[in-house]
Write a structure and sequence with these properties.
By secondary structure, the chain is of the alpha+beta class. It has helices at 85-96, 102-119, 128-138, 143-155, 162-166, 178-213; strands at 15-22, 25-33, 40-47, 63-70. Bound molecules: zinc ion.
Length: 220
């Protein structure tokens, strides 16, 4: 499995502890420490009896529900320090509610995307669908990013759910994978608009110190 803290894959079996039964079946806690980051991973499991065979572990075919308890959600890449607070806040909130409510997560990330397109990419204020079209037409964003921005409105099926486009922060039903895709898009745009320019500036600054020491004019 993949560690929800550090995203490393590992093969250690989770230890499983039965915590009783009800008319729905058996309940258990499944836990282990990630061998890479050494953090505890805990899940609540329920399913058809028997859920736990004599030698421990779980009978996968009998598991009906597997809810990650700790950490509460699979961690994403984290938000780079260069990302301004107003975008980082929406992004963090969208990540933290993802497992409980993909609908709420997608509403937050759509709103964050719209803010980003308006404030940073400087698109004309319109519906999110038209704003996405403007950024695609502008050809100012590399194609690997425009492909996934375009997927936001395709997977989100904006044609069938126009409210997603008109009122981007509205909580409306989502398609499978839509909330995760919205977060992928935000991460790609954060990298393009904030992280990469900051790295380029840092390289220039370092080069200019060397040029100054050599008595040469700085680059701009
Ligand atoms: Zn880990």
């Amino acid at each position: 499995m993949k560690c929800p803290h550090c995203l490393e894959s590992f093969h250690e079996a989770m230890a499983t502890y039965g915590i009783g039964s009800d008319k729905q079946g058996d309940w258990a806690i499944s836990a282990c420490n990630c061998p890479a980051c050494r953090k505890r991973i805990i899940a609540l499991v329920s399913g058809k009896s028997p859920l736990i065979p004599a030698r421990g572990g779980l009978i996968p075919g009998n598991v009906h529900q597997y809810v990650l308890v700790y950490p509460k959600a699979i961690s994403r890449g984290g938000c780079p320090k260069e990302v301004p607070q107003e975008f980082a806040n929406d992004y963090f909130e969208a990540c933290s509610v993802l497992s409980d409510s993909p609908k709420a997560s997608a509403a937050l990330s759509r709103r964050c995307l719209q803010l980003l397109l308006r404030d940073v990419a400087k698109v004309k204020h319109s519906t999110l669908e038209k704003e996405i079209q403007e950024i695609l037409d502008s050809q100012k964003v590399p194609s690997h990013i425009t492909d996934i921005i375009d997927a936001v409105r395709q997977i989100g099926n904006f044609a069938a759910h126009p409210i997603k486009s008109k009122s981007s922060g509205e909580i409306v039903p989502v398609e499978p994978g839509e909330a995760e895709l919205n977060l992928d898009v935000l991460e790609a745009l954060f990298d393009f608009y904030f992280t990469q320019p900051a790295k380029t500036q840092a390289r220039k600054n370092a080069l200019n110190i060397k040029l100054k020491d050599a008595g040469k004019p700085p680059i701009k």
